[in-house]
Design goal:
The chain is α+β, with helices and mostly antiparallel strands. The chain is built from one helix and three strands.
């Protein structure tokens, strides 16, 4: 099977102690961190590869490039 290239948007955010969290909104579960941006970028690439391999093994599909994204608003009870 020939590999195909896919691009994913990655959100990088600084978290505790200066670490960088990386997540891919299109792929729930694709979340990691690194000591700096470079490490976070490498870690998210690996996380996405592993997640997509898991999807393939379990016949789960990622959102297609033409998928429609929307938002919903819900009421969340206060604590």
């Amino acid at each position: 099977m020939q590999a195909m290239k896919r691009e994913f948007s990655v959100v990088f955010e600084e978290i505790e102690d200066g670490w960088i969290m990386a997540r891919v909104p299109e792929l729930p579960g694709a979340v990691t961190q690194g000591k700096d941006l470079e490490e976070a970028r490498e870690n998210i690439k690996e996380a996405v590869e592993l997640l997509l391999e898991s999807y393939r093994q379990h016949a789960v599909t990622a959102a297609s490039p033409g998928a429609v994204w929307d938002t919903v608003t819900i009421d969340v009870p206060a604590r």
